[in-house]
């Protein structure tokens, strides 16, 4: 399990675009494409592109399924723990206010989010 720095923003900006970054990492898309697709979904739903409703609808439209994490230790199970438990596959983790992609046990982000607590995750089925 390793933290891999990932910032697909064309200008290398560190902005509140974690949903876009997560989609880029999971789907190997350019930042502009992921951004435009979220915006189109948001426009269709009359909601902001970074809202959880839009993010969920977009992911479901491209074949992702949402899974809840067990609530056995709601404050102690971290992104790092999830990576150790999921050494294979692609996952999009959602915390209360952050989204990060895990690919084959490594998490791709523009900051070290290993201590964040995921609430649920998406996998492509």
Write the layout of secondary structure elements.
Blueprint (H helix, E strand, L loop, with lengths): L2 E3 L12 H10 L3 H15 L6 H10 L2 E5 L10 H7 L4 E5 L4 E5 L2 E4 L10 E5 L1
Parallel strand pairs: 1-5
Antiparallel strand pairs: 2-6, 3-4, 3-6, 4-5
Helix pairs in contact: 1-2, 2-3
Textual characterization of the structure:
The chain is of the alpha+beta class. It has a single domain (3-124), classed as Cathepsin B, Chain A. It is 34% helix and 22% strand. The protein is built from 4 helices and 6 strands, in the order E-H-H-H-E-H-E-E-E-E. A 6-stranded mixed beta sheet has the order 1-5-4-3-6-2, sandwiched between helices. A hairpin with a 2-residue loop joins strand 4 and strand 5 (106-109). The longest helix has 15 residues, at 31-45. It is globular. The chain starts with a strand and ends with a strand.
Q: Which keywords apply here?
A:
Cathepsin B, Chain A; 6-stranded mixed beta sheet; 125 residues; alpha+beta
Question: In brief, what are we looking at here?
Answer:
The chain is α+β, with helices and mostly antiparallel strands and 125 residues long. It has 4 helices and 6 strands.
CATH fold label: Cathepsin B, Chain A
- In which order are the strands of the major sheet placed? 1-5-4-3-6-2
End-to-end gap: 23 Å
Overall geometric form? globular
- What summary fits the major beta sheet? 6 strands, mixed
What CATH architecture do you see? Answer: Alpha-Beta Complex
Low confidence ranges: none
- Helix and strand content put the structural class at alpha+beta
Helix and strand sequence: EHHHEHEEEE
Percentage of residues assigned to helices:
25-40%
Report the average pLDDT across residues. 95
What is the level 1 CATH name? Answer: Alpha Beta
Structural Rg? 14 Å
Structural domain tally: 1
Residues in β-strands, percent = 15-25%
């Amino acid at each position: 399990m390793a933290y891999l720095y990932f910032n697909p923003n064309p200008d290398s900006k560190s902005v509140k675009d974690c949903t876009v970054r997560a989609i880029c990492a999971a789907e190997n898309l350019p930042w502009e494409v992921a951004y435009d697709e979220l915006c189109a979904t948001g426009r269709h739903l009359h909601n902001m592109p970074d809202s959880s409703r839009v993010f969920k609808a977009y992911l479901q439209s491209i074949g992702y399924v949402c899974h809840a994490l067990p609530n056995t230790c709601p404050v102690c199970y971290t992104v790092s723990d999830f990576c150790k438990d999921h050494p294979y596959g692609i996952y999009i983790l959602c915390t209360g206010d952050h989204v990060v992609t895990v690919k084959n046990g490594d998490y791709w982000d523009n900051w070290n989010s290993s201590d964040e607590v995921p609430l649920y995750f998406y996998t492509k089925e």
